[in-house]
Design brief:
2 domains; about 170 residues
């Protein structure tokens, strides 16, 4: 039974990984940004579930917590990004104290993001074990890297291999 589950999850993952280029191969008129985001989210679910070897029972408890954490982090990042944009756009006209205040808010936001991760690490470990919860940190990075690799491959092919793997440095990381 366990081998069948692994086989099915492996098949699902392989299908998902082959779909990544298709998710980005669509012309902008054929699929909107929301559709792409949904596809990537589905691929991420399949990837993480397989890599962590989540049982059905674990997955049912894990995904609501993970989605809650992701939502909180996303909200914090959005707020921080807005503050950073405002600081960058108005840097020359802001007073020293305004720059200091905004910078402190940005740094506090980074601390808050880490605090959110720490709180949810405890909750997640309570449903999938600490080993799997710690592995989640590397699995998330692995997914992002594989997604970027597939996207860069696709972009390289569609642009005649121009600029393959080169990403402009915008300083917004």
């Amino acid at each position: 039974m366990k081998n069948i589950k692994r086989l099915l999850s492996t098949a699902l993952l392989m299908t998902a990984l082959f779909m990544i280029p298709q998710a980005y191969a669509q012309k902008s008129g054929n699929i909107d940004g929301k559709g792409r985001k949904e596809r990537v989210a589905q691929l991420k679910i399949a990837f993480i579930t397989k890599e962590l070897e989540l049982t059905t029972a674990e997955a049912e408890k894990f995904w609501p917590l993970y989605n809650e954490m992701s939502s909180s982090i996303k909200k914090e990042r959005k707020s921080r990004k807005e503050k950073s944009k405002t600081l960058k756009a108005n840097y020359e006209t802001l007073t020293e104290s305004e720059v200091k205040k905004t910078t402190e808010q940005i740094l506090d936001s980074q601390i808050k993001e880490v605090t959110i991760r720490k709180e949810y690490m405890e909750k997640i470990a309570g449903v999938i074990t600490y080993k799997k919860a710690v592995k989640l940190l590397t699995v998330e990075q692995k997914f992002k890297q594989e997604l970027l690799n597939k996207l860069n491959e696709r972009r390289g092919n569609s642009q005649g291999n121009q600029g393959q793997g080169n990403r402009p440095n915008t300083g917004n990381r």
